[in-house]
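Page 47, continued from p. 46.
Same chain as before, 713 aa.
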Amino acid sequence: MKNLSVFFRAVSQRQDLALVMVLMLTIGMLILPLPAVLADILIGCNLSISVLLLMVAVYLRSPLDLTALPGMILVSTVFRLALEVTVTRLILTTADAGTIVETFGEFVIGGNIVVGLVVFAIVTTVQFIVVTKGTERVAEVGARFTLDAMPGKQMSIDSDLRSGDIDQAEARRRRQELASESALHGAMDGALKFVKGDAIAGLIIIVVNLVGGIAIGTAQRGMPVGQAMHTYTLLTVGDALISQIPALLLSITAAIVVTRVGGHGTDLGRDMAGQLMANRGALRIASVLLLIMALIPGFPKPVFLGLAALFFCGSRPNWKYLRNLILRRDTNEVTEADNTNAPPGMARGNSTSQSGEIFTSLLSVTITPLLDQALDRGRLERLLSLAVAEVESDLGIRCPRPHIRVGGNVGAPRFSIDLEDVPIEEHTLRLNHLVLQDDPMHLDLAGIDGEAGLPLLGREPTIWVATTAEGRLKTAGIGYSDNAAAIAFRFRLAMRRHAGRFIGLQEARQIVQRAEGEYGDLVREATRIVPTQRLAEILRRLVEEEVSLRNIRMILETLVEWGEKETRAPMLVEHVRQALSRQICHRYANQQKTILAFVVAQDTEQTLRQAVRETPAGAFLALDPDMSQQLLGAIKERFTNAPGVNSGGNRETQPIIVCSLDTRRFVRGFLTRNSLDYAVLSYQDLAEEFPVHPIGTISLGISANVQAAAQKH
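Result:
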């Protein structure tokens, strides 16, 4: 027993020995005769492995998780053919092929030779003509399309790497995944030829066994013709079916894998059920058709009525509405009664607050009931949580947890991003459509139809593609997003744009308290010099311009250094920005650590200085309306024609605006008021290791007379 445990432990540590043993056993079965008991064991192993492979394929999340399948097909096919040789030898020499073959033959034949031959013919036809031939065609086409799409996918990976969307490790992983996918399709295309040949060999083997067995039984064993036909037909059909059924299971396994290319990260059952149950209208129409079929004379009514009820319940109907409809109650009266019981201040028919909410939510998402029915709420919540985690990691602050509310227009798939219960942006989505996140030219090359709509993910018009083309988009390597991802994208942008509102006195204290554990003396000195109220304003101004607070040590040290010399929060912010110049420049530099910049001309800066007004509430920029429009037009023209713009309207590196320290915050405020999200840096914000490459000048081109008039104004 101890020696046996040592043997199994050694085998478990050397999995390669198992394959070697299988191959050696296969060679032995081709040459040496085996007893019927060992044949039963090998037949059971063959059937078990086929069932295991089928279950693995069903629960497979991606074809790349089973790249060893072509090799498994080869080994199992050769093993099965060697096993058929062994069983054929047993049938012809001893008329005894083991218990499994005999039992299977008696069970299938049922005392009738013709029935056995017909069943075998049907199984072989299904495997050879339907499953194997179809799988072979799918694998062939998949391999061809995968090879054709490889250059485009490689270019997409290189483009993402150059733009900084992915790092070297992610690019390497994607290239390896692409190479594995191509190799899998090519190998499957070749491996399925073995399955096809196995089916042909099965037909030949059954003819040989029948003719040879009857001849040996009558000529050598002296059996009557009827007894010889019954005996050898039973064994032959049993052998053929017990070998063809594992081959059929292996063909189905290969078919599932090659048709699962471009899976959605879920197993086949969930994937199929999710897509079949996604369209509620289709389920309801199918239930109506089944009800009509139940009315046909002669059809089993309980069967069709049960299926109709199942389809209708699967469409997740609004039972409350149906109950009111059956009772002939006016839905408007029901809505009026519900709104009467609503809290004061809530709009009728529009749920603006979730049950249990007492205080105003800083940031929330409101979706209409129609959109709520079409969305996967769990996926939307996960994407919103990921967006919060990304912004928190990037800016070094604690963001509010996302709230999802249902309300608004019942008949439109709309959503809004609400800041303090006030919508800051609203968008309309399209059901059963995807949002293109790629160059529209790629759609034309792939022959996929798209429809332009209002901008959603950027400044360019949104291209909507029907969800039925999702598989073709994946195969062509074209980027896209679903509605949940689009909502999360807008939510992420809203969080970044209004992140300054997430920092108040309490949040500033919490940031300082988190830093106190590591920088206790520094925190105490900084809070002594800079009051918490001023510290909160400084942190808020930094976050409003997407300056991360993760380097809290440098921020506090700068405040300790300048806090007693400068009491104005805006100027303290400029000193902090100067201390964080390397961090700020890294954010806007390209891969060569170069910053593309538009420089504000000196005459324009002088005009801006003259337009600054000092008041007890603080300084503000008071530009003449004509001059304001002229400056706005100049900035828009520069950024529209900036180099590095691709056909999709995106830039690999966003240019910045560079100006003097005293005018920087006024230029930034001017852009913010005009809904322009361009970074503005002062000359003091530029670090030495990040060279600036001027690509243009922003100038008003104002004459001396106009400047004098502005100064007099």
